[in-house]
């Protein structure tokens, strides 16, 4: 089997999956021999595991990271070479790269090393990002004579502002992790040895102390309110509050505060709907 053929099959070791006792699922991009370069096999496996985590009531928060001290340097060069030189090359059918945004559970990315191209895209699709000062972030699109991909030109200005987004997307310069945190591209910059522990600590705190149903609704609100008016957001939040106050989780949350104990919230049901992406259907 050729290297390119291998990159279209989805062996289980391309993305590792571990569900911890604290309700955190860890997805690890795992092709260290190729620095976790993205292939269609990895993509298929990654999205399938996101679906598995979304459907598992025991999973409350998801953390995605990369093996071998790097996140993902972009699409595998064998795929890029074939796609750019072979007129007969056909890309496989793919799911939207925004898929992580539809998962009704918090997704945090722990980014070290290279984070470029489609690796940059997938880091942005997480709800928040932890990084290190040595990490190298770049969209890389224009340096490959490509346009902005997968709604990055929509999402990036909302994360870092229009001016910084224009800088990053036009120049596609490399941004170190400490600058990424200053720009708002990353939420927190920590030492390399503290990267995964910091992401896992945040995830464990949310998994332990926050109601899964409420987390799913807030993630949906964050998505829909990006293209809503202030009044639309207010009305939607009031409707959701009416529902939330009638749920057992609300009584449990209040009781846990009064009794000074950890809450015992219900897990998200298997059939909970995905997050609605902003602007869909408009």
What's this entry about, in short?
With 282 residues, the protein is α/β, with parallel strands linked by helices. Helix content is 43%, strand content 13%.
Number of helices: 12
As residue ranges, the low-confidence spans are none
Helix content: 40-55%
CATH level 3 topology of the largest domain: 2-enoyl-CoA Hydratase, Chain A, domain 1
- Our estimate of the beta-strand percent is 5-15%
Q: At the first level of CATH, what is the class of the largest domain?
A: Alpha Beta
- How would you name the CATH homologous superfamily of the largest domain? 2-enoyl-CoA Hydratase, Chain A, domain 1
CATH architecture of the largest domain: Alpha-Beta Complex
Estimated radius of gyration: 19 Å
* DSSP strand count: 9
Report the mean per-residue pLDDT as an integer: 93
Order of helices and strands: HEEHEHHEEHEEHHEHEHHHH
What gross morphology would you assign?
globular
In order across it, which strands form the biggest sheet? 1-2-3-4-6-9
What does this structure look like?
With about 280 residues, the protein is an alpha/beta fold. It has 2 domains: about 5-205, 2-enoyl-CoA Hydratase, Chain A, domain 1 (Alpha-Beta Complex); about 210-280, Lyase 2-enoyl-coa Hydratase, Chain  A, domain 2 (Orthogonal Bundle). Helix content is about 45%, strand content about 15%. It has 12 helices and 9 strands. The protein has a 6-stranded mixed sheet, with helices on both faces. Helix 2 links the parallel strand 2 and strand 3 (about 60-65). Helix 6 (about 150-160) crosses helix 7 (about 160-170). It is globular, with a radius of gyration of 19 Å. The N and C termini lie far apart (about 45 Å). The model has no long low-confidence stretch (mean pLDDT about 95).
């Amino acid at each position: 089997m050729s290297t390119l053929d291998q990159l279209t099959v989805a062996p289980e070791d391309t993305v590792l999956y571990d569900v911890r006792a604290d309700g955190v699922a860890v997805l690890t991009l795992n092709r260290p021999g190729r620095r976790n370069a993205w292939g269609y096999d990895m993509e298929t496996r990654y999205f399938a595991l996101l679906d598995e985590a979304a459907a598992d009531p025991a999973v409350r928060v998801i953390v995605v990271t990369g093996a071998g001290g790097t996140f993902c340097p972009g699409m595998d060069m064998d795929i890029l070479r074939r796609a750019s030189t072979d007129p007969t090359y056909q890309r496989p059918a793919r799911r939207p790269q925004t898929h992580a945004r539809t998962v009704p559970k918090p997704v945090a990315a722990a980014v070290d090393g290279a984070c470029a191209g489609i690796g940059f895209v997938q880091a942005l699709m997480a709800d928040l990002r932890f990084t290190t000062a040595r990490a190298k972030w770049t969209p890389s699109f224009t340096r490959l004579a490509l346009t902005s991909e997968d709604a990055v030109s929509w999402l990036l200005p909302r994360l870092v502002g229009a001016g910084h987004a224009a800088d990053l997307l036009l120049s596609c310069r490399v941004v170190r992790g400490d600058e990424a945190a200053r720009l708002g591209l990353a939420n927190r910059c920590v030492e390399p040895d503290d990267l995964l522990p910091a992401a896992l600590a945040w995830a464990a705190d949310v998994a332990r102390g926050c109601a899964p149903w409420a987390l799913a609704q807030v993630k949906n609100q964050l998505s829909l309110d990006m293209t809503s008016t202030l009044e639309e957001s207010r009305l939607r939040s009031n409707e959701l509050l009416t529902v939330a106050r009638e749920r057992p989780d609300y009584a449990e949350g209040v009781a846990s505060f009064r009794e000074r104990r950890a809450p015992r919230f219900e897990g998200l049901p298997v059939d909970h709907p995905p997050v609605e992406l902003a602007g869909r259907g408009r």
